[in-house]
Amino acid sequence: MNRMNKKIGPTKTKPEPPFCSFCGKGSNQVKKMVQGPSAYICSDCIENYRTKLVNDSEKAE
Predict the structure, then answer these.
(1) 4: pLDDT confidence band, cut at 50, 70 and 90?
(2) Per residue in 27-60, pLDDT tens?
(3) 37: CB partners within 8 A, 6+ apart
């Protein structure tokens, strides 16, 4: 058994939350986190990109 796999005893550390692949916020910092096949996106980024898409489409009209 190598050093990395050896159990020392119960730990009190919490697992890391998933982080948004776009802004880097943790799931505990946003309302929702959406998981894709190889990335996460938070509700804040979804809203920011949605607003930008709406504004860009309005300018194009």
Answers:
(1) low
(2) 888 999 999 999 999 999 999 999 999 998 888 7
(3) none
Pairing between β-strand 40-42 and β-strand 33-35 as defined by DSSP bridges: antiparallel
Q: How far is CA 29 from the centre of its chain?
A: 9
CA distance 37 to 50: 21
What's the length of the chain? 61
pLDDT of residue 14: 47
- For residue 54 the two structure tokens come to 């709406």
pLDDT at 13: 43
- Neighbouring-strand partners of residue 33: 42
Give the type of residue at 6. K
User: Where does residue 24 fall: left (phi above 0), alpha (psi -120 to 50 degrees), or beta otherwise?
Assistant: left
